[in-house]
User: What shape does this take?
Amino acid sequence: MIEISDHLPEAHIPAGVRLYYTGLEAKLGPVFGPLEAALAVLPGSIQPARCLVAFTEGRLAGILGIHDQRGSFLEPSYGTMVRHYGQISGTFRTMLLMLLDHKVPPGDLYLDGIVVDNSLRGQAIGTALITAFENRARDNGFASVSLEVIDTNPRAKALYVRMGYHKIATHTMGPFSHLFGFRSTCRMSKQLEAVPHELSQD
Assistant: This one.
């Protein structure tokens, strides 16, 4: 049975950060470096309420980051980056992170990365997380949801298409493509339909 939490519980922050980073290392690796370096920065650089977490039998199974107009799940400050990496490297890494940042228009809720434990794939955990994400967006009055998928992850893109997302833009990485390991990202969006309230019975 899959249980969805609307935040990352404090006791699960180390495991949650590790899972999120390793699953998104293609994008985040150039910014934060090897896993050991990343784990020194990320636990204190996240917003635990801006994510959804899946558990199966008490085990952390997946995590989905959320980005709204207030900010994102992963938010390391410039000071934090400089403190951990030094002035020059910290500044460069902050600039790389800005390349991955997204402007979220009013009325839209952005899916800022989704990761499922490799050993638990095929159990519809990703689908459950995305469905919960859409329900959260709908319940909070958002008209649409959006996400980006890198060009080297066709499996994820196929899942999003099956769930009703459609391509609205392509962003190229330009000269940074060799650094990140992918050439472009596909921006996808889905309009949310309001769920009508059932008429009360007398």
Observations:
- DSSP finds eight helices and seven strands in the chain.
- The chain has a mean pLDDT of 91.
